[in-house]
Amino acid sequence: MLSMSIQLTERAAAHIRDSLSRHGSGVGLRLGVKTSGCSGFMYTVDYAEDVGAEDTLVEQHGVSVVIDRQSLPFLEGMEVDFVQDGLNQRFSFRNPNVTAECGCGESFSVQ
Known about the structure:
Layout: E1 7-8, H1 10-23, E2 28-36, E3 40-48, E4 55-60, E5 63-68, H2 72-75, E6 79-85, E7 88-94, E8 98-101, E9 108-110
Parallel strand pairs: 1-6, 2-5
Antiparallel strand pairs: 2-3, 4-5, 6-7, 8-9
């Protein structure tokens, strides 16, 4: 396990734990970045069914987050939270590497 400065809030960890329980399988949350959107990049979130040789494993609050090696530089220093607003719920990413976000909030750019 690599020690990175990616922080999970307790709410995010609780949501990941509950989601994995309902999903019925997986070792944790897979978090990454892909080229997309009007600003250049967007976050990807999925179940991590395994940890590959090119992956980094971050463990906090009793849950695991799996990150592919290419996404690491974009995620360093990020805080992952889980927010609920009425019927809407989502992960919230506070990423110090982001230099601009698109108007729809779905993509971001970095320098």
